[in-house]
Amino acid sequence: MNEYLAILPEISLLVVLVFVLGADRFVAEDNRRQVGMVAAWGALVTLLITVGVWWWYEPFNASLNSDLATSVIWGDMLRMDMVTFVFRVMFLLSLLLTILISLDIEHLQRPEFYGLLVTATIGFNLMAASVDLVMLFVALETASISLYLLAGFSTAEQRSTEAGMKYFVYGAFASAVMLYGMSLLYGLTGELTRVLGVHGINLNVVGETNIYELAQAIAAVPEMPEGMGVYFVVTCVLILAGFAFKISAVPFHFWAPDVYEGAPTPVTAFASTASKAAGFAVLFRVIAAGMFGSYAVPLVVEDGGAAEWWIIILAMCVFTMTIGNFAAIFQTNLKRMLAYSSVAQAGYVLIGLLSMNADGAGAAMYYLLMYVATNIVAFGVVILVSNATGADNLEDFYGLNRRAPFLALMMLLALLSLGGIPPTAGFIGKFFIFKAAVDAGLWWLALIGILNAFIALYYYLTVIKYMYLYDSDAADVAIPVSRAARLGLALGGIIVLYMGTVANQAFVWTTEAASAFFAILN
Amino acid sequence: MEFSFPILSMITLSPLLVAVIILMLPEERGENARMLGLAAMVFGLVLSLWMYITYYINLEDVSGVLWEDTLMFMETYEWLPSIGINYIVGVDGLSATLVLLTAFVGVGGVLISWSVPDRPREFFAFFMLLVAGVHGVFVAVDAFLLFFFYELAVLPMYVMIVMWGWKERREYAGMKLTLYLLIGSFISFIAFLVLYFTPLADGSTIGTFDLRAWAEVDFPVQAQIIWFMPLFLGFAILSGLWPFHNWSPDGHVAAPTAVSMIHAGVLMKLGAYASMRVGIQILPIGAVYWFPFVILLTLINVVYGSLIAMRQRDMKYMIGYSSVSHMGLVSMGFAAMNVEGFVGAGIQMVSHGIMTALFFAIVGMIYDRAHSRNMDELSGMRHVLPLPTFAFVLSGLVSMGMPGLSGFIAEFPIFMGVWRGRGINIEGTFGGLNPADFYSIVAIMSALGIIITAAYVLRAINDVFLGEYEPEKWHDMRPIMAIDKVVLISFGACLVIIGLFPGVIAPMIESGVTPVVERLNDAQLQDPFTVLEAVNNVTTDLLAWFGGA
Fold this sequence. Notes:
Number of helices of chain B: 21
Shape of chain B: globular
Order of helices and strands of chain A: HHHHHEEHHHHHHHHHHHHHHHHH
Order of helices and strands of chain B: HHHHEEHHHHHHHHHHHHHHHHH
Largest sheet of chain B: 2 strands, antiparallel
Oligomer: heterodimer
Radius of gyration of chain A: 22 Å
Distance between the termini of chain B: 50 Å
Strand order of the largest sheet of chain B: 1-2
Number of strands of chain A: 2
Number of helices of chain A: 22
Shape of chain A: globular
Number of strands of chain B: 2
Structural class of chain A: mainly alpha
Strand content of chain B: under 5%
Radius of gyration of chain B: 23 Å
């Protein structure tokens, strides 16, 4: 029974999917908005179910601990722990807000659109929960394929079609590379068992795909034979490449600006938050499981070097922040600028991963949680403005404060949060991340992160300046904001403010989740 | 000392609340914003005055050499208890004075911008936010809270400069100011976090952000020496320490009058206060080690700042650079590392705060009427603006340290402290070079700053207020409003009162700085050779680190 309860949110999403697709039959042609309403209510109910089960059902709650035996379910495919819970909340929040802000965009009011959003969310949920390479790949593809379709959803627009195509080609390539890495690892399991046998360790992992089993076996090898270590490094690089694509880390970020700019903006909002968070979920899972070896303390491996994955991710992290921010400075299109900014934001989250302590992972999760709300608010404002003006260049935001004070205020909050200024969530998020990094002895990395945050602040402040200071020709034309969009933005804004001031509950959740992550290792 | 009524939270958070209310006012009722703003500021002033007087009356009971003992009106609420972050506020003598100063300048700022023409609603909302942030830093006892409010104060500065500032420079100056201040504070923050995780003598880490604990703990000498400069400098940037003063004149000039007043009057004190509270108080040994260098920087501040001020023809730039020069005296007082220097620095913060705010208010009044701040164009203003002329002369006399006015009360102890700083026991710290020699030279040379100040202030008075008045040149010349008079008279009166009766603030400030001075004295008692060894270790470590990397 617990096993079904554990995947209740996914079941609920499936039901929502059926309702959304079915609702098409019963909704009048001129009232397509109702389909979106069904999806929005569905997302809300699922969110409540997720939180409710966790909150009130004590036996289930108690099993969300670090005990691997009770938390790994469904034939060792999924793991129900606090990590899954926190990420689920992120995805569902992202889904709900995305639906709310896109509810009144007419060309998107189709059941397929909402249906695909829901499918993608199911995929994300499973990604966050999966602890098996096969399950992980299936979940990842479920999400990815939905997103490819969504990116190209505005068939009337050329750049949307282009975005869909580009996303698909890059994405398929990245998946293939990752799958190759996984199959290589699968092929190595026999040799691994043999090597273990030579050392007198009786551990059979032939054909094993569960990441914890694999990690345990790899950790058990006292001495990696010459040559075999190279294969593991190659595996690690290939798998990381696939994940890096999902989180749009440099050098796998090239698709992001084009896709984010071309895709319908609600899809951009969704893909830049939920999809990225899901990418981080799997990355954290795999790394924290210790599948690439040496997780404990970076930089103190015997021969004086760090674990290979650590070096790779360090380089990725520094370049992601720096390149993302510098590229964003020169953008003239706000969507593109936010795209580069979201590339850069991934870099900060990677700092949390590099710290390799429970604090760091907790901080990264907190950061992602607030980033989901923040980025959706930012893109939500872009949606409403570009709907009214037909464009999303920076000039279209001149004098936004006079045309739509509410939108300007929400954008202000979002940009401050992205830039890390109190009283918004970004400040606390960055604080946790940098604190964890300093704790791990990486104060220089924290310093790099902070310098980057200020480069970023430059272009965020520029947008604030445009909104509040500059005048536009259309200064008197008000921008209509529908009720649903207002609700969605206000909800996002409240979350940003809440996580920026009170902060404690979200912090407790993410910290607990992170300790569950790492408790397994000891 | 606990207190049942949350007075500090009221002072800090009521402007925040009013800011939200103002922002929610409908557009057409924007005029009500200034009434609301004034009400909030006056409310804050009354509360802070009451708070100040209560502290003053109880001064005997709350003085001590431990910072913890000097705190009053404490409030504690849980915030993020698991990592030792809590909402803790309280004031000591110095911060009580600065809170009062902030409230006072806040009221003046609202009155001066009574007729702000453009979007008054947003103007007053952001102004309230700014005041709240500044109050917050002064009352914070938790380091995280301090950083939180610090960042909170910088943002409205940016928005206000960019939206209501002087059109030609505002975008550049606003961005420059924001980036300078935020980078500085975050570098401090990193240093602070490193210390948070630094093992102490007993092997444990400090595990809390409560500054009361930090004020008693002794960090390892090596950590103190390495991390003092980042920690101190990050905040000293905001107090305009050379060579990081560059943002300040630009920011002063570009900001609207009320913001200039807050900026020069209070915000720069924020930097000085935080660099003392978080820098010097936490790492006294680091301070003892680095201050002979820092005092040279402050000397440059004082002399160079006033020389540059002399060169300016724009009145606001002149005051901006003079402000850099005077804030240099504050840091110099700290660097003297004795009680005279600190008390002088504290009084200078207050005196300079009121004086500069008054200066900027007057320049704002002139600019509103003449639409020029160029000293070559202006002349004979005394004929049309008699009261501002009087006030300008008064604050000019304060800035050159005339006895009987507050400037003298502030500057005299600073110079005395620096001169006395000769006796400091840090011989051998710099391999043969005796840093004690700096102090007497610095004391003599910095007095030059006063002479230069006198020169440019008198020249400005001569150019702008004296001379022939040419009525045909000005079209918009009108007498000043009654509320402007209130500001001028009350600010001027403060300068005279502090000058004649230093007893109204000096004991408060002395009680506030005593714990810090005590820490420094203890640090100076350290055997110089221990320090020397630690320095050698640091050098070796750094060399090894760079060589290895």
